[in-house]
Amino acid sequence: MTRSRSRKTPAAPAVTAAERPAPDLSFTAFHQMNRASYVRYAETYLRHRQDAEEAVDSTFEHLLRTWDDVLLTENPAAYAWTVMRNKVVDHARARTRRPPLIDEAAFNTVALRDAVDPIGQITESLALFRALRQLTDRQQDVMVMIYLQGMNAPEVAAVLGMTSATVRSTVRHSLRRLREILGPDRTMEGQR
């Protein structure tokens, strides 16, 4: 009877940046198409460009490491968006800031600039942004992109990995929900 010896496999040698394989072209294209939108969205919540870029860079690092698995998901764009959204929340928590919220956006709206009663408009805008927090994550994302960032339905659809019809439907359902929360005269339709 022979005894089998367990062999230890040698540690893989360190790979230098020059030896590391280039990212998949599909990842490179995905990165180029989405980075600006991701940063803009992250900045809405984190309120600082550098923090937004760090959160988004962390997102793309994660996606690059797992890109083959990402491509196997039913909807890679939607999966990537979820990763990014979670990284933004984690980044805010790591900076011991209050939870990501968009109350500050209430002070930078067209409605406020054109308001006859700026104090009343601030109060109304704050109520609206508090109501937004009661929407689902998807509804919040769509409403922020459409009404605060001025994106159109096809642009939002491309970033979130959904159809333009789904974006429009989400806006309708979100506005209906906001009317329930705020009353029929106070929704984002007046903020646009």
UniProtKB/TrEMBL annotation:
* Keyword DNA-binding applies: yes
Instruction: Name the InterPro entries for this protein.
Output: RNA_pol_sigma-70-like, RNA_pol_sigma-70_dom, RNA_pol_sigma70_r2, RNA_pol_sigma70_r4_t2, RNA_pol_sigma_r2, RNA_pol_sigma_r3/r4-like, WH-like_DNA-bd_sf
The portions of this protein that span the membrane are: none
What the entry lists under Pfam families is as follows:
Sigma70_r2 (PF04542), Sigma70_r4_2 (PF08281)
Which Gene3D superfamilies does the protein's record reference?
1.10.1740.10, Winged helix-like DNA-binding domain superfamily/Winged helix DNA-binding domain
* Domain RNA polymerase sigma-70 region residue range list: 34-98
Q: Which keywords does the record carry?
A: DNA-binding, Sigma factor, Transcription, Transcription regulation
RNA polymerase sigma factor 70 region 4 type domain: which residues?
A: 127-178
Does Calcium show up as a keyword for this record?
A: no
Q: Which residues form the signal peptide?
A: none
PANTHER family assigned:
RNA POLYMERASE ECF-TYPE SIGMA FACTO (PTHR43133), RNA POLYMERASE SIGMA FACTOR HI_1459-RELATED (PTHR43133:SF8)
Family (UniProt): Belongs to the sigma-70 factor family. ECF subfamily.
| Protein name (database record) | Sigma-70 family RNA polymerase sigma factor
